[in-house]
Here is the input.
Amino acid sequence: MPVLIRVSSRVQPLAVTARIIMLALVAALTLILTKEPGQLRWIALLLVAALPAFIAPDHRLFGPLGRFAEVAVTGLAAGSIALAADRSGTVSAPGFGAEAVLPYLAVPLLTAALRRKPTEGAALLGVAAVALVAGGTLIGGASPSPITQPGFLAASGQWLVLGAIVTFAADAMRQFMQPAEPTPQPYAEATRLLTQLRSVARSLPGATLDPGGISEHLLEELRMVAPGDRAAVLSTSGGGRLVVLAQTGADRVDWETTLDSESAVAEAWTTQQPQVASRSQARSHRGGDVSSLVVPLVAGVRTIGLVILEADVSSAYPSGVVFDVTGVTEPAALRLEAALLFDDVRSLATNEERQRLAREIHDGVAQELVMVGYGIDNALATLPEGTEETAEELRTLRNEVTRVITELRLSLFELRSEVDRNGGLAAAIAEYARTLGTSAGLRVHFTFDESTARLPAATEAELLRIAQEAITNARKHAGASNLWVTCTVDPPYAEIEVSDDGKGFADDRPDGRYGLTIMAERAERIRGRLKITPRHPSGTTVAVVLGSSAKRDSVRDSVSAPEGE
Here is the structure.
């Protein structure tokens, strides 16, 4: 509709101006060629037919009727004016006097073309042809009639062809004459949008765009509007399932996270309307009276998440409560969408930078170190006899180069490691621990307890990096023989624990505090807690905990793997 309004606003003044000019032109030509002021009655009729174009150009009935009337009057007038011009002797060919009025045909035809009405334009051409035949045959009663005169036929055919060109070629001509759209500049546009995002992020309360924090704040607001026993905010994940961004409730709640099931969750997501149900949206609910309310978080036309509220009583969410809840969730949807988009941009940028660094290290310093190793090997092979001391130094240097290359390869593996959306966080940590365990001769023990539900992708990535740092520190600095890796994921709760039986974390360990600072910053970014404690009788335990402890009975899959397994 806005496009049609803009087109109409441009067409109307153009059509009015064209009619005024053409009416004046055909009036002057008619008077010059016929020398009969009485023929101006046709111009008066044209003015009457054009009145809808001046008064109600956008009327769905009067506008088209006015244009058909203009075409009919022009065709009928052509025969009469042609006869009058023949009588005056001002034209060289009989019937050619129709040229005085036929230029007016272009006005209604051009108006229809500019309004993008090709069907109406074709109908106007048909009416014009019929009116010309009628005007050339019936008007004036002269013999021979204008329709039989070459000049009339030439003039009529000329303006019908020009009218057809105006009708069917106007759209193509308009597109051809439009200025070319500027070539898209994706990087310039991305820079502009990211600059705006940075400015907005700095102006937000607390300067934060954290989906988990926004979700927790939303649940706090909803608690004041609709008290209940359990609540959660869910959003989509890369794996096509829902992930829990935040939840409240005394016990662990196993929420429905699939969108292909017959549930209020799937219905709310599809219809974008609040759904009230008399059964729980949790898989592990023990039964009894329960009321659940699922409210979609809609930003624009897209569903970005869901809010689930539950109470252990029946009929806890009447229409009035639903109205109050949607009043809170509607503005929160936009805030959450901004946070999720910012999270995606940050994750994409981080992953791209990690891949870029991995490529540069592999193609740069790693290759150069390999060449240094080859040079040392060549030097050892060409040493003369009696230089055992030099050979020993070169062998020591070669071993050191080999060690550095091994470290670089492990660093490349760390940079390229990602959480597979199908494999999960535990699988990614296990793969990394196995690889490093093999390189260091460590006996690695795994204990995994991972729910089918998933954490947000950005959270899983941060937890993987923390586990990688803890495992790397144990391999490089602890001097351990065993490594214990425990991974518990029960969204929104998660705990990753890495323990070793090495010498412990003393102040004189060469790794310093930089690795700990990085882990602490990552934990803080996802609102987690980093804990470093001594392990009895020796070693260190590094753990990161996200959310509150899950309370459920489950069977843990414990795997004790020999070196590198």
Summary: The radius of gyration is 41 Å. DSSP finds 15 helices and eleven strands in the chain.
